Amino acid sequence: MIEKTTPSEMIVHIGPQHPMQPGPYRLNVKLHGETVVDLDVELGFIHKGIEKILENKTYLQGITIVDRMCYLAALSNEEVFCGCVERLAGIEPTPRSQYIRVIVEELSRIQSHLLGFGEFGHFIGYASMFMFTIKEREDVLSLLEMVTGTRITHSYIRFGGVREDLPEGFEEKCKKVFEGVRIACDEYEELLRTDTIFKERSVGVGVLTADIAKEYGVAGPSLRATGVPFDIRRNEPYLVYDDLDFNVCTQTEGDIFARVKVRLDEIRESMYIIEQALDQIPKGPLFAPDLPYGRRTPVMRVPQGEVFFRVEDPRGEMGMYMVSDGSDKPYRVKVRGPVFPTMQALPPLIKGESIADVTAIAGSMDSCTSEADR
Amino acid sequence: MDAKTIIDSISNEFSDSISNTLIESEIRVSAYVSSPDVVEVCRYLKESLGFDHLSCESVVDYIKRDEFEVVYHIASYDHPVVLTLKAILPRDNPVIDSIVDVYWNANWYERENYELYGVSYTNHPYLKVLVLPEEMLGEWPLRKDYEGFPQKTAKNLV
Amino acid sequence: MGEINQNITQKTNEKVEEEVNQEEIPGVITTTSNAISDFIKKTAAQDFINWGRKNSLWFMTQPMGCCGVEMIATGCAHYDTDRFGIIPRNSPRHADVMIISGYVTKKYLPALKNLWEQMASPKWILAMGDCSISGGPFYESYSTVQNIDEIFPIDVFIPGCPPRPEALLEGFIQLQKKIAAKKDKGTNY
């Protein structure tokens, strides 16, 4: 807790309800004039105890719960949960379902980055940016809805497969939507490059260097913006990412502008991945015929053991540590979300900046409080 | 750097404190460490073996064995090997050294473990509640013998 | 105004009225603003006032969970709540409607009450999503608060996990109908 030491200092509480915040958290900012002297992040306003709930739910019920952990990356959460169970139970998903998983996860990455990008525009006073990106996001969400049936919390991935096959006409609709998103991305980039106000708010502000970012444990776009090509999809490939061609998008500056640029590049890269996957997707069953558990088996016993599995969330490295004691419920689930260390890095990052930049820096980290709190 | 060199290196360096080493796969290794030496082992891992990324720090409550296991998942930004380091603590007095000096981002993980499990860390810079409300400190909700779960206050449940 | 409990507010108002009525000035009829508003409620003027109120339901953006994202999406370009005079506002001081869009935790409840008290009356509350109605998937959690409808005077419940933006729009339309029919809970605040 920060305390006032001299009369010339002032403490401003930002949050838990503030236009800057995608979910409730509180920043206690100590100011000297307009400069931030000290900063303290208060979490837990939406702490739901997901880890405890997961210990008391069967594995199939757990999918629904991890969905609500981070609502912008629900499919990555499902992937990490199902990946853990598959590794414990020794199930290998069929090739077709692996490709479908890649497609839906990359779609979810696109919509998350679009929202994060628009929100960031909103934080620095560019409200129309939000309106632009939400329009494209709705198009991408309609694709996800076509496959999974829901907009943001899908419960789509199952152990060893996926719930439904790709619907008819998905590929054509994908192409149509991506055309629009590509044009929109070019427009955003044009806007980034030419708009003086946007550049003045973002270039050279909130700079993270590679060494400091590594020290803070930051991952995802914020780390890649500093020039470190750390991407779980490349470093520790899961699903069929090995067979797909993609770049790990990096920038070297490490400031807000670089972070936003990395997200924009990743949207394009994700679309490229999806198009490849749609070309390469093999025909075949969604579940292996000799699967030990049915797709909707309410009670499945997973062998004893423990596993730590990581995937690349839209926001960075998403890990899960699962301990099974052989019963139908996990013994312990620990979620290592990407936002938790990112938010931890806010105080040293913001210290010394002016109060006007606090929202810009905190917003550019694209933090999802729900997942940091769990 | 592959899994075997890592295991050999730490077992040689800390032959007294490292035990039960296990190579699960090419990218996952695990080892038990005696709790007083955690900081030293972590410093060695970071400085000599390139494990510069503390991915996760968690606690598992083994109530039947009357033990806590503090689990460190230590990874690297360069190579894909993740080392799972475990330290065993007694359940009635769980105290362990904080590794914030070595890995800066252990700070919040340790605060979270403290409020949810009651594992107290010595030399921690600021060991206070993080996600729970202040008045819930001391209930240790994630322990297996916690009585407040499931909460039965919702009236409109069937 | 700031009291959460409706009954307490009314009782205190009655007391104030009694005190005022005791000081009678000969030849002058004294009254209070409460008495005036009570009188207006019986006339057709109230219909006109409610028509105005129901067509400018500005809501406060305070995303709390999954439903918060849908709430944001509803307020933006695609679903365009502006058509109904429903505009997202960032400050509670500007807002007429608070949407409880997610799980209310023990830590967040005081802040939520504070936000509700900061809003100027007349004000309404929508409970959006299963979490705020009955606890949703987190009903048994150690850190969430149940039975929100006992704490806040909720006018419309929108079920769903999370409800679609269309459902939220429908919730607003139901609230408008309630206001037009003078059956809402919010106007008394």
Cα-to-Cα separation, first versus last residue of chain B:
57 Å
Radius of gyration of chain B equals 17 Å
Oligomer: heterotrimer
Largest sheet, spatial ordering of strands of chain A:
1-2-3
Short précis:
Chain A contains 15 helices and eight strands. Chain A is α+β, with helices and mostly antiparallel strands and 374 residues long. Chain A has one domain: Cytochrome-c3 Hydrogenase, chain B (Orthogonal Bundle), CATH 1.10.645.
How does the SSE layout of this entry go?
The complex is a heterotrimer of chains A (374), B (158) and C (189).
Chain A (H helix, E strand, L loop, with lengths): L8 E6 L11 E7 L2 E8 L7 H6 L3 H9 L6 H16 L5 H29 L3 H22 L8 E2 L2 E2 L7 H25 L1 H7 L7 H7 L4 H4 L7 H4 L20 H25 L24 E9 L2 E9 L5 E7 L2 H6 L1 H5 L7 H7 L4 H5 L1
Antiparallel strand pairs in A: 1-2, 2-3, 4-5, 6-7, 7-8
Helix pairs in contact in A: 2-3, 3-4, 4-5, 4-11, 4-14, 5-6, 6-11
Chain B lengths: L2 H11 L4 E6 L4 E6 L4 H11 L4 E10 L4 E9 L6 E9 L4 E3 L8 H12 L2 E3 L36
Parallel strand pairs in B: 2-5, 6-7
Antiparallel strand pairs in B: 1-2, 3-4, 4-5
Chain C lengths: L5 H17 L10 H9 L3 H10 L4 E2 L5 H10 L12 E2 L7 E4 L8 H10 L5 E5 L1 H5 L21 E3 L6 H16 L9
Parallel strand pairs in C: 1-2, 1-3, 3-4, 4-5
Helix pairs in contact in C: 3-7, 4-7
Characterise this structure:
The complex is a heterotrimer of chains A (374), B (158) and C (189). By secondary structure, chain A is α+β, with helices and mostly antiparallel strands. Chain A is 47% helix and 13% strand. Chain A has 15 helices and 8 strands. In chain A, strand 4 and strand 5 form a beta hairpin. With 158 residues, chain B is α/β, with parallel strands linked by helices. Chain B has a domain of 96 residues: Beta Polymerase, domain 2 (2-Layer Sandwich), CATH 3.30.460. Helix content of chain B is 22%, strand content 29%. Chain B is built from 3 helices and 7 strands. In chain C, 41% of the residues lie in helices and 8% in strands. The longest helix of chain C is centred in the first third of the chain and has 17 residues. The relative contact order of chain C is 0.15. The N terminus of chain C is likely disordered. Chains A and C meet through helix 1 and helix 5 of A and helix 4 of C.
